[in-house]
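quick q for whoever's on today - can somebody do inverse folding on this one?? i tried earlier but teh output was garbage lol. tokens:
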């Protein structure tokens, strides 16, 4: 195929200048957003990278369409028959179809493009390193950004342009050997082939995982004793670990409320239907009604572990008459390291980055008092093992004006007791006992207020060899360390005085 013969006229030059000005204007608009990242990292939730990558193909398609319209308008004015079989028009035809199909695939099948562009990252890094090696300095950010955009354009627009060029060559050959009617029928069939491919892409289900998809939920609030609906109840759904806008609604005369919450959703979807399930874990549901106890519960306890995305089941909430206080942990509420404890006994625990090995470092649930101890009731996430924080009970320990949320295990109790007696360092005290952040400026006076049984066990463990690290072991260790050091010095002096030739021998080397 020969390249199309283009006549350089004033109109063509003005048209090229217009296209260049439009591209420069778009580049000036998108440059600040592209320059925010230090390296190329495509994010298909934002179509900016896709637009940059397809800009060469879009330019060629737009130029070809305008060229075709201008030629058709000129032929009509000159009353000549319109020749639709020119090579550049065939190239434009295929570029437009490949561009539309590529945009559709990128929108409905983003993982295909993500896997395809995984090869671009090492190429971009290799290009930067090569230029830096030749220039003997670090590549300028603007030059690196230009190279990334150029590679992105080659990766995305290069294959469709090559396919369009081959298609244009075949179209030129067919136009020369086929009658006009058959050539038009062939063009329609090729268009139908592209349409069939687009239809197959549109109906093919693709797996997805979304953090925030709006889901319509329905709840019914009734009296615990009579079962009558409660009018005017206020419902609110809040996320445990993320500060997002909460969904809220009021119940009507039938005691029902409908609200839209953004929940984690997994499943499959295509261009016409979304099929999946909703995971309500990590959400609090709060219900307030005059004359009733405020109920704060997890959404998973009301709706179940999973919900159908298209037809979620309604939830039923019962409220009891207000007879007791709703905030049994008011004096202990606050932030204790990774713990956040609410006045009503709810808690959340978050440690980032997220743990591996199938265990969750995001936990939430309720606290309950059993004597002097606090029992952690974590709400288990379906399919995940509970974290290590639910394996031990806790205590609220006051030390002066500070409050600690301390595990009942021996290592944590020993660390806090030794810090109170000034027998150990307080540098790692926050690791063993969780202090309340609002008490960091308050003084620590006296001793930690443990029960006398714990102090007795601590004293017994400190003077025996049962504990892993206690005062007796440390004292014996210091004595043995000092004795060993003195014996080494003594042996060294004796050998140096007995034979001057042995002065340079290290201690412990046998002399024949």
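ok took a stab at it. sequence:
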């Amino acid at each position: 195929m020969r390249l199309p013969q283009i006549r350089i006229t004033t109109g063509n030059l003005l048209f090229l200048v217009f296209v260049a000005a439009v591209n420069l204007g778009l580049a000036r608009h998108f440059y600040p957003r592209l320059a925010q990242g230090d390296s190329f990292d495509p994010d298909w939730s934002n179509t900016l990278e896709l637009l940059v990558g397809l800009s060469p193909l879009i330019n060629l398609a737009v130029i070809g369409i305008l060229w075709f319209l201008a030629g058709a308008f000129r032929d009509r004015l000159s009353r000549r028959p319109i020749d639709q079989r020119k090579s550049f028009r065939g190239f434009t035809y295929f570029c437009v179809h490949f561009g539309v199909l590529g945009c559709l695939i990128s929108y409905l099948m983003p993982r295909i493009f993500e896997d395809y562009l995984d090869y671009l990252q090492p190429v971009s890094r290799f290009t930067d390193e090569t230029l830096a090696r030749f220039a003997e300095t670090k590549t300028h950010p603007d030059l690196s950004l230009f190279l990334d955009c150029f590679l992105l354009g080659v990766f995305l627009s290069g294959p469709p342009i090559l396919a369009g060029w081959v298609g244009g060559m075949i179209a030129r050959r067919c136009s020369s050997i086929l009658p006009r009617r058959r050539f038009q029928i062939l063009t329609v069939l090729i268009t139908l082939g592209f349409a069939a491919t687009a239809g197959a892409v549109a109906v093919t289900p693709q797996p997805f995982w979304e953090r925030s998809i709006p889901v319509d939920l329905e709840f019914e609030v009734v009296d615990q004793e009579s079962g009558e609906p409660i009018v005017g109840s206020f419902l609110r759904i809040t996320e445990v670990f993320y500060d997002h806008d909460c969904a809220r609604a009021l119940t009507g005369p039938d005691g029902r409320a409908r609200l839209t919450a953004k929940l984690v959703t997994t499943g499959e979807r295509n261009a016409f239907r979304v099929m999946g399930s909703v995971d309500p874990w990590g959400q609090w549901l709060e219900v307030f009604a005059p004359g009733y106890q405020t109920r704060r519960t997890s959404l998973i306890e009301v709706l179940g572990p999973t919900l159908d995305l298209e037809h979620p089941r309604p939830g039923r909430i019962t409220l009891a008459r207000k007879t007791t206080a709703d905030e049994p942990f008011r004096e202990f509420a606050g932030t204790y390291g990774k713990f956040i404890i609410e006045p009503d006994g709810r808690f959340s625990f978050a440690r980032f980055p997220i743990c591996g090995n199938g265990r969750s470092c995001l936990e939430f649930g309720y606290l309950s008092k059993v004597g002097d101890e606090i029992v952690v009731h974590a709400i288990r996430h379906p399919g995940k093992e509970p974290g290590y924080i639910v394996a031990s009970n806790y205590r609220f320990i006051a030390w002066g004006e500070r409050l600690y949320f301390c595990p009942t295990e021996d290592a944590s109790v020993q660390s806090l007791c030794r810090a109170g007696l000034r027998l150990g360092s307080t540098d790692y005290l926050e690791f063993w006992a969780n202090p309340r952040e609002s008490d960091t400026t308050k003084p620590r006076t006296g001793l930690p207020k443990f029960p006398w049984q714990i102090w007795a066990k601590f004293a017994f463990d400190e003077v025996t060899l049962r504990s892993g690290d206690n005062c007796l072991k440390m004292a014996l260790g210091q004595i043995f360390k000092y004795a060993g050091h003195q014996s080494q010095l003594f042996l060294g002096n004796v050998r140096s005085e007995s034979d001057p030739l042995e002065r340079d021998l290290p201690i412990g080397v046998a002399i024949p």
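fwiw The chain has four domains: 10-203, 206-319, 330-451, 472-502. also The two ends are 93 Å apart (CA to CA). so keep that in mind when u check it
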